[in-house]
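Shapes recur. Our protein:

. . .
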Amino acid sequence: MWTYLQDGWRPALEILILAVVIYYTSRFLRGTRGWPVVVGFVVLLLALALVTTALDLKVLRWLLGTFSAFFAVAILIIFQPELRRLLAELGNLPLFASAHEQRENIEVIIKTCERLADVKIGALIAIEQSIQLHEAVESGVPVDCEATPEMLETIFFPNNAIHDGGVILKGDRIAYAACIFPLTQRRDLNKSLGTRHRAAIGLSEETDAVVVIVSEETGSISHAYKGQLVRGVTLEELRAFLTSVIVQPARSRNAVEWLHKRFGEQFKRGPAVITKSELRPAAKHAGNGIKPS
């Protein structure tokens, strides 16, 4: 029995690795332009393999084996855009991104909110983390460009074709614009809360994204995370919050602290909307004042 386990763990590990790679690759390609090509290519190869095996077509089987290397090259050529985007997203993961790069991405958001708030232009910016957001939104226009304050201002400028909806940021790039985020279904919210803020709460309830909102009516800045909306924050408070959530924590943090922060807070259900004054100790027991959105 022990000998069987010693000999069998390697094939099991190989199957597990292949299953994980195939799953995440298909999940990444699903919904892209190359997905129908992937399906057609796989169906064609499986059909040829079944026919050659069932009918014992030796010549066709030899051709499939001989041209397998060319098939690999064809995959690289056909799916070059998707592969480049996959590698780019791997490079933007927090595991690879340095704290300096993450702070630079935060400063882009801070500058954008400052400029838009001054002129009272509404904005809805979702920062993707570990959960992909394209599955949570109903629509969106692919942008795939570098995230800069100027580009974000251009997107949210009134009368622009894609100014309605939200923007999804992946690392230092704008992935999608004009996205429709899911609205929260919570009934304890004040009816004066606008659609933009309700969409921010809804997306943060379904994903681990951080959503930043600029009110079109008042120019106030808010942020939503884990189903909780904090309104009327300053730029410094927004910077501190984004830094605490996005920038990787110090490696000296032990496992108990990490698990408590990662999972413990998910079971704490606080008020859906918090004003800036409620974050101060002096106003800890104050009511949930809500400004016009």
